[in-house]
Write a structure and sequence with these properties.
CATH superfamily of the largest domain: tm_1862 like domain
Low-confidence stretches: none
CATH architecture of the largest domain: Alpha-Beta Horseshoe
InterPro entries: Elp3/MiaA/NifB-like_rSAM, Methylthiotransferase, Methylthiotransferase_CS, Methylthiotransferase_N, Methylthiotransferase_N_sf, MiaB_methiolase, rSAM, rSAM_horseshoe
Number of helices: 12
Shape: globular
Subcellular location: Cytoplasm
Strand content: 15-25%
Subunit structure: Monomer.
Bound molecules: 5'-deoxyadenosine, iron/sulfur cluster
Strand order of the largest sheet: 2-1-3-4-5-6
EC number: 2.8.4.3
CATH class of the largest domain: Alpha Beta
Largest sheet: 6 strands, parallel
Distance between the termini: 55 Å
CATH topology of the largest domain: pyruvate-formate lyase- activating enzyme
Cofactor: [4Fe-4S] cluster
Radius of gyration: 23 Å
Number of strands: 20
């Protein structure tokens, strides 16, 4: 029974969403259960993101707000809320947080959350702020309890950290060196999730396809092999992975896309830019032609594969001609969804000191042009889905009564009229409408047979 209330606010990537769930798992034995109201929480954790300047700045304004909420609760005589900052801002700026916001009780990096119970105990004993931003020699995964119930679609961290050192990126510094969890641990966590009702698992890692965890035979397994082993788990209908790096797309992973029906035909494969000069300056380790070839091979393996990507505009030295190369690549490849950002200077990264920093208004103007093109591609894809039949994992209730919302194989939200008992199941749906950000469809009366890929409905 939960006797205390825990509120966690998560910023940034899916790895943080997973980490937040794991922090809740670690705190459950101490009596903490979830609340979605910080005003009644005994502990509030901000799980922060350091990837761009804006993301990092949000933390300090949120801390100011939480301090006032905490004071009001204390004045009501409801006890003192423990206030913690976790995640990548904590890792990168731990000491600065305690200096700028000395009212914070806990500061812990992404590699330290298995030590939360100790930190809470020390805080209670000593009454002073606790800071833990060490990279422990023993990986945190060895100390985590079994996952709690996660719902129909769950994340599973298989790889963490990054050794690629793209010149714009803080991740190698905040998340540390690349680490792959052993296969046996991952399979056990996946089985526990499926036993608790999960039917779709997204494998997570900063460069997830660099996965090379130790297999049961003692040899390193790649991501393709891991996916094949996961696909054997009864009741696991869907597998995804994110975020991948073009350099680590190997033959076996491409083959897995052809051979494993549970591996969904949607891939987030960040390219960042279309200019070879800029890709080199970014230290991405591949050129635009290599990216095009990888996409070609993936599409040959899985013809219905749809792609999403990340882009940075206004990297130092980016000219109008470089940017035109990005637009040309987008135009040629076609993405059904994307994230695009203005380059944000991150202190301590190599690109921060490069000459040719691009003016903010130029970045804004390029971003607008890129986003117009990417949006048009997304809208066109959603419209082209009208008339298709596809498997939809109904994983949420909708806003309207009698409505459920699900995910298509391509991660589009799909609104469907369906009874509540269907929540958490994969159903065959015909798509009737394609909006810019979602689809609407209706259940196919008698689908029968095994789940299939998207199909044109016979006229
Ligand atoms: N500026 C802008 N975008 C960045 N990203 C990472 N670092 C920066 C930065 N300094 C983007 C990349 C990456 C995504 C997670 O965030 O596109 O793929
Ligand atoms: Fe950052 Fe590059 Fe590593 Fe991705 S591959 S986490 S962008 S350094």
């Amino acid at each position: 029974m939960a006797t205390k209330k825990l509120f966690i606010k998560t910023y940034g990537c899916q790895m943080n969403v997973y980490d937040s769930a794991r922090m809740a798992d670690v705190l459950a034995p101490l009596g903490y259960g979830p609340t979605d109201d910080p005003a009644e929480a005994d502990m509030v954790l901000l799980n922060t993101c350091h990837i761009r300047e804006k993301a990092a700045e949000k933390v300090f304004s949120e801390l100011g707000r939480l301090r006032r909420i905490r004071a009001a609760r204390e004045a009501r005589g409801e006890g003192r809320t423990v206030l913690g900052v976790a995640g990548c801002v904590a890792q990168a700026e731990g000491a600065e947080i305690l200096a700028r916001a000395p009212f914070v009780d806990l500061v812990l990096g992404p590699q330290a959350y298995h030590r939360l119970p100790e930190m809470v105990a020390r805080l209670a004993r000593a009454g002073e702020a606790q800071l833990d931003t060490d990279f422990p020699a023993d990986p945190k995964f060895d100390h985590l309890p079994a996952p709690g119930v996660r719902g129909p679609a769950a994340f599973l961290s298989v790889q963490e950290g990054c050794d690629k050192f793209c010149t714009f990126c803080v991740v190698p510094y905040t998340r540390g060196a690349e680490y792959s969890r052993p296969v046996t641990d991952i399979l056990a966590e996946a089985r526990a999730l499926v036993a608790a009702g999960t039917v779709e698992i997204t494998l997570l890692g900063q460069t997830v396809n660099a996965y090379h965890g130790e297999g049961p035979d003692g040899s390193p397994w790649g991501l393709g092999r891991l996916i094949r082993a996961l696909a054997e788990i009864d009741g696991l209908d869907r597998i995804r992975y994110t975020t991948s790096h073009p350099r680590d797309v190997d033959d076996d992973l491409i083959a897995a896309h052809a051979e494993v029906p549970a591996l969904m035909p949607f891939l987030h494969l960040p390219v960042q830019a279309g200019s070879d000069r800029i890709l080199k300056a970014m230290n991405r380790g591949h050129d635009a032609a290599a990216y095009r070839r990888i996409v070609e091979r993936l599409r040959a393996a899985r013809p219905d594969l749809a792609l999403s990507s990340d882009f940075i505009v206004g990297f130092p030295g980016e000219t109008e001609a470089d940017f035109a190369d990005t637009l040309a690549l987008v135009d040629e490849i076609g993405f059904i969804q994307a994230y695009s950002f203005k380059y944000s200077v991150r202190p301590g990264t190599p690109a921060a000191g490069l000459p040719g920093q691009v003016a903010e208004d130029v970045k804004a103007e390029r971003l607008a042009r890129l986003q117009a093109l990417l949006n048009a591609q997304q809208v066109a894809f959603n419209r082209a889905c009208v008339g298709l039949e596809m498997d939809v994992l109904l994983d949420r209730t909708g806003k309207k009564p009698g409505q459920l919302v699900g995910r298509s194989p391509f991660m589009q939200p799909v609104h469907v009229s369906a009874p509540a008992e269907m929540l958490g199941t994969v159903r065959r749906v015909v798509i009737d409408a394609g909006q810019p950000n979602s689809l609407a469809g209706r259940l196919v009366a008698c689908p029968g047979g095994a789940p299939q890929g998207p199909q044109r409905v016979p006229a």
